[in-house]
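During the reporting period the student researcher (J.K.) took over the structure-prediction task from the postdoctoral fellow and processed the backlog of single-chain submissions. One of the processed entries is reproduced below for the supervisory committee.
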Amino acid sequence: MKKTRDNPCDKIDCGKPKNTKGVSLVKKHIFEDIILQNALNFTEEVVEIFGDLLNKGMNITELVARIKELTDKLGREAIEAIIEELDRIIKEDKRRKDKWVVERKDKKRLTTVLGDIEYERTYYKSKEDGRYTYLVDDALEIGRHDRIEKGVKIKLVENAIEESYERSSKKACPEELSKQTVLNAIREIGEVEVKREIKEKKEVRVLYIEADEDHVPLQDGRDE
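J.K. obtained the following structure tokens:
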């Protein structure tokens, strides 16, 4: 039987804070203001790109590249704001106060498929067993020493099966990653996991073909 993951959010309720008075309401508005300001900046930059298109000209590849750069940036800013808001909600939750003592705030930098993000989160000490942790990182399944999120690691491994480590890195995320970083990701995630997925897909195809005793047409129009 699969073990249910122990998520700190389940214990301390990471939903909307029950107390919406005073400072909590103000901080909620600050979070919303950050999101709205980022969206406004994005809109202004898109208009600027359109102006460059009209005045200087650009091909579709250049246009796509510039828009992707903007959307990736908007995504990174949204993720940073969301994580820090979640950290605040956890910190203000009464059940957290009953079980965890605030120690300090630390910055963390993490490479994602959208590029590097940087955020501040709170470090806690347990009143029950004295252990230390970052509750928001636990809630989001970010390891204490993680510098690259799992989505990037999986892409690195998938790409490295067919391509060089350098090309694998460029396809996985916008940031430049060293060959050693790619190797570490492969060791951590393992090629076995990826190969298993490929094997499962092939088995599904075979089962589909063998589901009927007659020949089953494939997508390319051939019979097998």
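The committee noted the following: The mean pLDDT is 78.
J.K. will present the remaining backlog at the next meeting.
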